[in-house]
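> Could you send the tRNA1(Val) (adenine(37)-N6)-methyltransferase prediction when you get a chance?

Sure thing. Input:
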Amino acid sequence: MNKYQKFDFKKFSLGQEKCAMKIGTDGILLGAWVDVNSPATVNILDVGCGSGLISLMIAQRNPYANIKGIDIEDGAVEQAKDNVDGSSWAKAIQIEKSSLQEVKSDVEYDIIVSNPPFFKNSLKSDADERNSARHTDTLSLSDLFQNSARLLKSGGKLFMIYPFDQLEDIYKIAALHDFYLVKQRTVSHNVNKSPKRVLLSFSYQQKPEKVIKKPFYIRQPHSNEYSDEYIELTKDFHPFL
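Output:
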């Protein structure tokens, strides 16, 4: 697929030609996995919203969600606004140009979700916007947890996806800011491959009764077909499932 082509999901479509970072598996997994099944109004902050993918996935899943998406990239903000305005959830989602560090809010958020920049010490491209979307210069792990603690209510949740090889650093920084691990899914291509990503849910200030840790496999072990769990998780979004 051409990287600038509109990406069609079952209930919304996303343009992505103005975004530095294109739609990928990380964002789809996180948007489908984040726990937003509350019968009450839920205030949600989507950090680094890009094209608006995760915000729209959450809005589709929870009609009570009140979502703010933020990004520091002009093209992403413009793109997300276009995508949200063209969807059925324009009233539920507000898009703003802002860094997480700059966010001020009159409400305490129930959920913060982020598919954050996480490339460290790697060769940067010539495009400044793509660099800011991919690298931790603009949002380090410490910044993410410190500012999430500032904006979340007690018991609020932080959901994120990150490289698996940085898991120990994540544990340490989370503990410094009073976050407790609730759920962890190590993400691998299949059972025969080592994990590359990890889906994480943390609770702010409230320790859970139990912690869930399970692997997640995108594909079947001996074929390139999607795993049953991937299909179950994303079937409400992918038009081919």
